[in-house]
Amino acid sequence: MIMTCKVLLICLSAPLVSGMIRKMKNIVRMRKGPGILQPYCDLMKLFSKEEVVSKNVSWIFYASPAIVFSSGISALLLILIASPGYQDAGSFAFLIAAFFVLGLGRFFQALAGIDAGSSFGGMGSSREMFISSFAEPAAFISIFVLCVSGPGTPVFSFFLAAAALFMVILAETSRIPVDNRETHLELTMVHEAMLLEYSGPSLGLIELTGHIRQMIFFTMLSWYLFPVARAGSLGWILFGLRIMAIILAVALVEVSVAKMRLFRVVDFLSFAFFIALVASIAAGLGV
Amino acid sequence: MINFFSKQLFLFDPLTIFFLSVIGLVSIPSAIFATGYLRGESALKKLTVSALFLCFVSSMCFVVTAGNLLSFLIFWELMSLTSYFLVVLDYKHEKSVRAGTIYLVMTHAGTACLMAALFILYKYAGSFDYLAVKEAAALMPVNVRNAVFLLSFVGFATKAGVVPFHIWLPYAHPQAPSYISSVMSGVMIKIAIYGMIRFYINLLAPAPAWWGAVILIFGIFSCLAGAIYALMARDLKKILAYSSVENIGIILLGIGAAVFFSGRGMGGLAALALCAGLYHLVNHALFKGLLFLCSGSVYRQTGGLRDMEKMGGLIRPMPVTALFFLIGAMGISALPPLNGFVSEWLTFQVFFSAFTQSGGAVKMFMVLSASVLALTGGLAAACFVRAFGMTFLAMPRSKHAQEAKEANLSMKAGMALLAVPVILFGAGAGLIAPVMYNISQSVLGGEKIAHTFYSVSVLPFTIMISLAALGAVVFILMKFVIKVKRTIYNTWDCGYYALDSRTEYTPTAFAKPFRIVFGFFLLPYRKSEKIRDSFYHVSAFKYETHTTLVFKKYFYEPIVSLIYAFACKMRKLQPGSIHLYILYIFITLVCLVWFVTVF
Questions:
Q1: Is the minimum CB–CB distance between B423 and chain A shorter than 8 Å?
Q2: Which of B347, B383, B475, B484 to mutate to test the interface with A (most CBs of A within 10 A)?
Q3: Could you tell me if B290 and B419 are in contact, meaning their C-beta atoms sit under 8 angstroms apart?
Q4: Do B381 and A148 touch (CB under 8 A)?
């Protein structure tokens, strides 16, 4: 029951987080921008629209939004079960499984990108798989560090692992140094190119999953920030504060750096990987 | 006097039975597939194929049930030879013969090393029996044991297609007919893994930890090199062959960790690692067998297409083959709830537990292995998005692809028999993992330690239920509550002109980011040229790109040219004069007499 509430709460608040990041960016840029509830309005609009579907597509294209959505929710369930109350082999297993489940969604998304036969879709799929395959080692090692460090919370290794995971998150949620959600310029888009053929409710479902995926990563990152598990309302308030801090960090990074060339992303992610590696050395030494 | 008559002819322990079931699981569906594949061929060809196939499969069965070194070697050789004949089945093509020759040379180079290792063992044991070998192994000098390990490792690694001994694999597997490749790739290369487990964990126990480290390092390189080459290949079957190299690497991560930990006296962890290795072994047998059968179906039903640049859109004429290929691709990309996920997940847990239970440099080794596995997983997913997407989705890129037809019933049945276990071994991990664990326990001996994996191994089933339930909810919502209205229209073409298959993203383009990033390893070559009618008019573009096979170019080709140069020099010994030859015979005789009297 509590789990259902948690899942619902996180799903419902997920678009809000995206709205807040956008608002924050606009405040920094001294623009007015849409309200923080804009993502909800966008979703409502998408769900009430008609779909236009390419005549070249197969069942993969139709099935993908549902698979993407259910993999997102399943991954959310997995990480909530693995909440950092017990940091051991069991919770490592759950967290890694959550990554694999998200991989299922990505796999079908990439296939759907190819399905319509447009060169944008193929390009998006290729780049998405490219980025994600380099993000994976860094993400796994950060989680490794989170799980090997017991309740004693060695601060230094956590700090490094959090930095690595933060960089991975920028890549995985298509944020600025890696990808740009706001552009639809053919040569620069990655994630959006893959979704180009989607419209209406299917697109809505995928966008909603995008928000949820982002929440999954933010929740994971929040465990590194104040690694003290708290139950009850205080826990929720702490959780909210951590998410706010992450939102601020993401928004500041997005407005202050420029988007990188695609091949620089590898350098970015290998840097994340090496930070994570250093974090694991630190965790091994117990600092 | 050599004692050829061994007391122990056959051996049936849980490990043997496990390998026999793997052989059965893949060979039977492949045989069923072959009956459909060979429809319309001449009776002679059918007879030849069935005889060779039978001989091949039974020799594999005998290798794993052999109870002594001699019969192991004999059936090992028989397995190599029958598979050679199966590779050159299409002997009228020069490519097949060439692939067969490379295979034959490599496999015999490996077998020579293996023979040397096993005869050293015989010298110390005084008998070919496994039991005698096991007793003698404990008393052997350390250096001899290490020599046995290194020699036999080269032998096994050549058969298994471990980098850098993998050179034959991308030639032989694509050239053999698909139902043979599925057995070769699914099972035959695993027989080498059987050899490793039998010798390093069982017979030569206790193995020193560095043997395990060597196996792990070779595993790491196989993983990465296999995954990168698989991403570059254009030939569908070549992709599968390279991906076998990669998956053998993942299996070796498990096996190597098992040897490593049993050498360090960490029995529980070794059992878990071996369990992960064996689980991935059976998984790879299943999905690689399935994928080879699917590629065979594509090859036959499109009239001989293997180049992905000419495929596309096959999901419409061949929906069943496409579905089976998708299941295989999902399995091999380690997507839950299918089987590849379970074994890779288990391997990660092994590395995690190892990290927490050991210290210092071992910790770093484990983290590095885990990160290599993560990278490999990502690359494999990209590779199979490319393989499935470019083959089955979008628009057909050639006339052959357009006119494809669905496979016939027995081909479908063969594929289905492999596709169902791919799902069962994933979702049913809660039932299967304990069985695997018991097998690895029995190989290692020692105390039984329960692991957290027991409690979480039901997770894949839960994930499947959750995915299915959520998917059903979404489907119902979309269909009945939101009532999605759909208009079918053209793909977005930026408002220019109608898109056709020429404007699609190609497999080469899909792999381009990887080609650039791994340029230091692939050494890509490209050339573009404008063909002009006159200075003002360019009539055509010529574009050429390929990657360099590093191991072939910088390791094997120098060796081959050295051997060739040496052979040319040796030719001077044979000028064709009968007198000289008589002299040679005389010298040989004198040498032999001297040898016999001295030794």
A1: no
A2: B484
A3: yes
A4: no
Q: Provide the 10 A C-beta neighbour count for residue B438.
A: 14
Which residues from B are below 8 Å from A194, CB to CB? none
**Cβ separation of A284 and B478 shorter than 8 Å?**
no
On the question of a cis peptide bond just before residue B208, with omega within 30 degrees of 0, the verdict is no
Q: B494 — alpha (psi -120 to 50), left (phi > 0) or beta? A: left
| Nearest beta carbon to residue A141 from set B367, B393, B478 | B367
On the 0-12 / 13-18 / 19+ scale of CB atoms within 10 A, A233 is exposed
The beta-carbon neighbor of B467 closest among A54, A71, A129 is: A71
pTM of the model: 0.94
The SS3 call for residue B575 is: coil
Q: Are B32 and B410 in contact (CB under 8 A)?
A: yes
Tens of pLDDT, residue by residue, chain B (599 residues): 445 555 678 888 899 999 999 999 999 999 999 999 999 889 999 999 999 999 999 999 999 999 889 999 999 999 999 999 999 988 888 889 999 999 999 999 999 999 999 999 998 888 888 988 888 888 889 999 999 999 999 999 999 999 899 999 999 999 999 999 999 999 999 999 999 999 999 888 788 999 999 999 999 999 999 999 999 999 999 999 999 999 999 999 999 999 999 988 888 889 999 999 999 999 999 999 999 999 999 999 998 888 999 998 999 999 999 999 999 999 999 998 899 999 999 999 999 888 888 878 888 899 999 999 999 999 999 999 999 999 999 899 999 999 999 999 999 999 999 999 999 999 999 899 889 988 998 888 766 666 667 667 888 888 899 999 999 999 998 888 888 889 998 888 888 777 788 888 999 999 999 999 999 999 988 888 888 888 888 888 888 888 888 888 899 999 999 999 999 998 888 888 889 999 999 999 999 999 998 87
Q: Which residue in A49, A109, A118, A260 has the most chain B C-beta atoms within 10 A of its own C-beta, making it the best mutation to test that interface?
A: A118
Query: What's the gap in Å between the CA of A2 and the closest CA on chain B?
Result: 17
Angle at CA of residue B417, ends A100 and B255, nearest 5°: 50
Q: Would you put residue B311 in left (φ > 0), alpha (ψ -120 to 50) or beta?
A: beta
In the block, residue with structure tokens 């080692």: A137
Instruction: List the single residue in B with minimal CA-CA distance to A97.
Output: B345
CA distances from B38 to A119, B44, B48, B50, B183 (A): 38, 11, 12, 10, 16
Three-state SS letters, B474-492: HHHHHHHHCCCCEEEECCC
User: Do the Cβ atoms of B379 and A133 come within 8 Å?
Assistant: yes
Of A93, A115, A196, the CB nearest to B345: A93
Taking the C-alpha atoms of residue A66 and residue B269, their distance in angstroms, rounded to an integer, is 39
Count of CB pairs separated by less than 8 Å, A with B: 259
ipTM for the predicted complex comes to 0.95
A266 neighbourhood in chain B, CB within 8 Å: 517
User: Residues 6 or more apart from A146 whose CB is under 8 A from it?
Assistant: A84, A87, A95, A158, A161, A220, A223, A224
Contact between chains at B367 and A139 (C-beta distance less than 8 A): no
Ramachandran area for residue B459 (φ above 0: left; ψ -120 to 50: alpha; else beta)? alpha
In this structure, the number of other CB atoms found within 10 A of the CB of residue A86 comes to 13
Domain count within chain A = 1
The domain locations on chain B are 1-205, 213-448, 550-598
A203: which residues sit within 8 A by CB, 6+ positions away?
A46, A65, A195
Cβ-defined contact of B471 to A70 (cutoff 8 Å) = yes
Residue A20 belongs to domain spanning: 2-285
The CA distance from B75 to the nearest CA of chain A, in Å, is: 41
In angstroms, what separates the C-alpha of B310 from chain A's closest C-alpha? 14
Q: Which amino acid is at A18?
A: S
A202 interaction partners in chain B (CB closer than 8 Å): 478, 484
